[in-house]
Amino acid sequence: MKKWTAALVTSAVTASLVAGCGGGGDASGDSGKKGEAQNSNLNATGFPIVKEPIKLTFFTGKAATTANNWNETVIWKEYAKMTNINVDFQLVPFDNLTEKRNLSLASGDYPDAFHTTRMTNTDLVKYGSQGTFIKLNDLIDKYAPNLKKILDADPSIRKGITMADGNIYAFPLIYDQQFTSALLGAKLWYKKDWLDALGMKEPTTLDEFYEYLKAVKNTDLNKNGKADEIGYGGVGYADLLNKLKGSFGLMNRGTAQPNVDMDPKTNELRFVPTAPEYKEMLQYVNKLTKEGLIEKEITTIKSNQFYAKGAEGVYGSMVTTSPYTLMKQTTYVGMPMLKGPNGQDKFTAIRSPLVQTGAFVITDKNKNPEATVRWMDYFYSEEGNKMFFMGIKDQSYTETADGKVQYTDEITKNPQGLTLEQAVVKYVTWPGGSYPGIVRQKFFAGAEALPESIEAAKKVEPNLIKDIWPPFSFTDAENEKLITLQNDIHTYVTEMETKFITGTIPFTEWDNYVATIKKMGVDEYLKIYKAGYDRYKK
Hints:
six-stranded mixed β-sheet, four-stranded mixed β-sheet, 41% helix, 13% strand, globular
């Protein structure tokens, strides 16, 4: 997996609506005679999940890196035998997922469940309140012991998946709290062989990072007689800014709300892009840009162009998931926490373990919600997690006596020359991300689990913030207002951010910039976030 994607989610429903629409029992699993008949086919624990086979239809988001027919993928064929539940995965490419998903819901022609479809908070609030998505609170308590164990161990995750009305409407994507590298995602790397050639020590402050970038630009480190060395390379400024925010005390509650954090001076919610420290950060990046230490085409370069250029080994530093998997570069190491101008040394670019709230929802058309909950819950267990990522023992992976697992040579040394991800999709469907379940380090083989990624995460662990917010939940009315405010404010912030950095707009215009954001309704924006924050605290 090259990238992780994250999405927020939420919503509500009543027992009478679900029983009336779905005919398969209300959300709590108690639905009178019909529910009793269905429960009679259900095994409360163990396998198979149901005594007599049933069929379910899932609307399913498909990444370009997964197989074209999940119904023929080895783990789903094997899981159907284990459970007595035959799932028809109706695949929709991520490229037009939102459009197809919304059409399906609007037409009323929707399936038993939505799997890997990136439901947003707004979606869940809207369709939960209508009764289209069933509430899962009681079903999780009764039939999802693996997810329940995770929620009991980390109340912040339970808070994050509980919507404004007190209901849970979706199974989430969770990263194991011990898998720090995955929680950090893309990392800031520097080229160690160049640092050594320059005779410099590893940067630990912003000033030292600046000196390193300057030395890279002014030295023929690749010895080709050309001045083609670039201090920092990336796609846009956003990744670099996120990695630098901690050096200025910004985004101090993690990346789930990158524009809202807690003001340490007032202990009130703060809009990050208008903070004085934010201006300081932009001035720092402006200095790097003016002196030619950053990729000149950073605002226009595409990902594939960035990877191709990176493969030439011209970047002194970059933010990406893995220089090795994406560019075949082996000499990059993770940057430690860079201390800021006022001594700030907390690393804040870390996501909540609750990565995506709406990864799997069950609809009111599902006549077997209890069995569907049990089907999904298995993938939050150790064994189910291993199956989801590794496939089938002695087919796609081997296991040692002490429980260590590794892919077979067919996958890691494919005779047809396939990459790991190309070879593994015969067995599993995890490449591409956004799936429901939990990601544990010992079963995950993507870029975040590489030794250099684990080592990079260890470097900043002592500086990680402790209080990390998950996504907040908002009511339908709050969401409607917030979407309008965010569209205008965030667009303006992004535009001005680039103009300040590139010098198109001088920093003497900062006060006008702040005043404009105030006129655009940032106070109302923060008021809505405060309502979500207060619900989270409760």
